[in-house]
Amino acid sequence: MIIKDMFLKDINRDIRGVVKVQQRDEEIVYQELDEYVVTKELIKHFSRFYENYARSVDQPTDKMGVWISGFFGSGKSHFLKILSYLLNNQPVLGKKPVDFFEEKINDPMVYALMEKAASVEADTILFNIDAKSNTSYTSRDAILRVFKKVFDEHRGYYGDNTAISRMEKFLDDEGNFEAFKEKYEGLANESWVGNQSNFYFRGEEIIQSLAHASNMSVDGARNWYERVDQADDLTIESFAQEVKEFVDSKDNNFHLVFLVDEIGQYIGDNRSLMLNLQTVVESLGATSLGKVWVLVTSQESIDDVIKVKGDDFSRIQGRFDTRLSLSSTSADEVIKKRILDKKPAVTERLQAVYPEQGPILNNLISFRDTPGNYRGYNDGVEFAQDYPFVPYQFKLLQNIFEQVRKHGSSGKHLSEGERSLLSAYQEAAQQYGNEQEGALIPLYAFYNTMSEFLNPTITRVINSAANNPNLADDEFHLNLLKVLFMIKYIEEIPGNIDNIATLMLTNVNEDKTVLKQKLTESLNKLRQERLIQKNGENFIFLTDEEQDINREIQSISIDEMEIIQSLSEYLFEDVFPEKKFRFSNHYHFDFNEILDTVKHGRQTASINLSVLSAISSSDVEDQELQMDSMNSRDLIVRLGGDASYIEEMEEVLKIEKYRMRRNVNDLSETKQNILNNKQAEVRERRRRVRDLLEKAVKEADFYANGQKLTTNGSTARERINNGLSYLVENTYYKLSLVKDHINSERDLKLKITSNEGALSLEMDDSTYPNRAAMNEIEQYIELQTQMSKQITVKFIYDHFGAVPFGWKSLDISGMLVDLLKDEKIRLRYNTVYLNTQESHKELMDVFTNNIESAKGIILKREKVDSALISKVRRIARSLFDTVSLPQDEDGMMLGIQDLINDKISKINDYKQMYTNKKYPGFSLLEKGTQLFDQFNNRLDNLTYFNKLVEMEEQLIQWEEDFEYIKGFYGSNQKNLFDDGLEILNRYEENQSFFENEANETIDNSVRELEKIIKNPIPYSEIRKIPEFRDNFNETFDDILEERQNKAKERIQDDYNRMKQYSKQEGISDQTVEKINSTWTNYLSQIEGTSDIHRVDALTVYSNDAKEKYERTIQREVYAHYQNNNGNEDTSSTVVDPKPVQKVRITSLVKPARIENEQDIANYLNKLSRELKQRIQMHQIIEIID
């Protein structure tokens, strides 16, 4: 039996799969009503709608809105249209629409409500809002204007111009409209109806017709015509009132219903349109109180629309109280009823063959990585019902139509719902109608239904492929391309080869393996032609512009090194991101990371993780890799599995390089969207690269130490860790010698500061687990010492941290501490020998600081002879009076050093007493410092002890001399010495006097005191100091008193002279006060001074002050004289305000030799003449020495 003979109704009949809201042909309407399938879901919707609508027949209501939602193809537009027929209930070929539903509605209550609603006169205005909208409408009031337009058209007026429709309504209300139309037709030779758009070109005819049909004059009509465009005052309130007037003009219970298709798509995200709809519906509800209804369709529910808009549209929810949501089951049920209904015998036949065919079909019809609702047949009933279609196609085709519409790959018609799912299924069934039973209709059979309305960017690709000679050998290529286009935007159906094979099945007995092979070949051809691309396992249809971009991307060259470096990032930063291999709790090993000989990151470790991808290892044999691993410290990992990670990575790099080269702003919006999608593709490819590398490691071969390894593990990390474990065990084969570990720096510090003694008596495995490891270190130090090489702590770390040891620095440092305590080695740091008793901080610095570890020098320790030890003990007893020294070498040395440090500290204390003092013994202290400073921790034990023996005699002699210094400071010798120093200091201050005025007692006392003070060992002579001190003081005090008296007389004379001068008129009080203060101070100081030189200095100060104030007095007297010149003399005593000139005799007359009295007379005459001449010049002469 062929397919078309299986159906109950002729598959080739005209069932009008195209739903047109304006379609009014009675035969078509009759067929629509007759074949309309009322599903269980639709019965619920009819019930809810009619319950609310019928309520408005009996009582007023403002809840007069119906919101019908459903995805594309759900039948919401068809449902809206059927409601328009039912509410209007105008007979169709003699049968009322409601009568068609008597048998379709199996609920008597619902049908009764339908009849009740049909009994009320109602006008219905059914329209697609997008089709009725005008581009000149602003978004602010676009919905209002569409409603006004369809309302005007419903009444027979011109809807595209409110001014014209207002004129028509005015004439109609006056009963003059027909007269107007007749007059116009006579004047213009054309009918008014249908030619209203000529309004602005037929002005004279309209003016004459208007004047003829109304009470207007010609001038009045002309005036109105000329101002017609200024009168556009359409508002929502005026429209609502106009509708109310229309309804009120009808019978008492008349209803008017606006049925608006695709309102949701028309509004989109425009809040102004949403607000406009809300206000229109609100106003109609408020004015008409249930006599006017508004029914709309939208793909989104009203709640979703309001939520998306984000504004307060809560009032619209109250108006659209009736909300109906159509689901996919309704559409499926309609298709199965109208198209797929089988003849009874065919249904029985198909159900009978299903038990045999079912398992085959279940195996054939299977999807990978898709939701469970994309499936095959559940049972024989479903098989008989859906055949030759497959259940998955019902949901998939709806999604295809929806996604094609959303992504702009289709024309406007598809978005308006002009092509329905019904048409798609009918046409596909017609196309395969002559096929024999067993045929399955593949997905590409539906392509022809939508092809007429697709964008050229799609059809061009399909048509070009049809004309491509490289694809002309088999129509299969073209059908495959159609399938890939149809699922391009269906995320639930990834385009892998398994899913594509299912979508292209054409027979229940198809060999799917053969089909997949054919698909593989065809997919490769389509890829070669750049019609599709591969993204992982999925194949993707490319539009024209996508092909252009893909061609540009594929022309980009990517260097192999770039691929390797990018793969390295994923391999070593994601798949295996560890930077240290955790061999045990105590040991973590660095390793170098290498991919295809290209190094990744730092390369400082001793072992390598060397990975080989398919780029470098495709032709390498196992034996060669085993040999490579034998001659290296590498864990070689040859990646297995699918090597497509290379191709995926190359694609990623090409796309990213392309994006960097292109300025996105220069591209069209479509190409920008393509590039954005490419970015998403990059993320997906990168995810696959990571997954593929993970899998490649899990399936990899591992090689180390010349062996091909068997590494267990369910993940890449586990396998690599197991391989590294084998490598470490066989590379660091002495690692196990360290059994006791230092886990932290804190543990190391505790070990250093502990009081554990020597270990030599306890060195066995049970008491010291690291004995073998420490022996290795000790032997290595011994060997390096024999070779005269310097050994640093860092050198030891590096040696025993490398192959074959691999020990931690902390563990090594712990064993070095034990060697120090066991006196097997010495450790010198910054020229100082460290020990575990005192050098805790320094040892920690050396052991834990990488820089400082290079400064710590390890020396093989020499054992000190016991005889030398005995000598040292004897010297310590003699020098320091101690016998309580430690028994071990280090302890003994430290004990002696402590005593020496105490001695140096005492010396330094005594030195402080010599500051600014010339006490005896300082040189001895300096010598002591010099002697004891030679002993410090820069010496090793042997050198230290030998030096102590060598310097024994010097040290003991110094100690004996040091007793004198202690006696000096411990008795009154220091005080007496201070008295002597004070006398010498006093003499030195007055030395200039005694040089001119010698005094035997003074000279003798000073001379004897200087002998004592300058004696380096004056201790026996200090007792003589008091005698010389007293002699000096008695004599000095007598001389001082005599000098004081003479000085006071001279200073007093100066004072008296200045007091006399200051009595002249014109002398200021300030000057007088300063004179008194100055000389009173001088006289006071004379009494208080104890130094002769100070007494003499005061007489000089007095004389200088006298000269200073004489000049001051002369200035003030002269100024006073000038101010009072010519006035009456007010002074009884005037001192000549002449300047005082201090001169020496030699400046007045030349030196002369005097031999007789005449020489005297001549000399005095010359002196007299010179003095008289100066007096005549108003000078006062003062002869000075």
From TrEMBL:
Residues 47-280 form the KAP NTPase domain. Residues 557-727 form the Probable ATP-binding protein BrxC 4th six-stranded beta-sheet domain. Keywords: Coiled coil. Pfam families: BREX_BrxC_4th, BREX_BrxC_helical, KAP_NTPase, WHD_BREX_BrxC. The keyword Coiled coil applies. Residues 869-991 form the Probable ATP-binding protein BrxC alpha-helical domain. Residues 734-862 form the Probable ATP-binding protein BrxC winged helix-turn-helix domain. This is BREX system P-loop protein BrxC. It comes from Fundicoccus ignavus. The lineage of its organism: Bacteria, Bacillati, Bacillota, Bacilli, Lactobacillales. The gene is brxC.
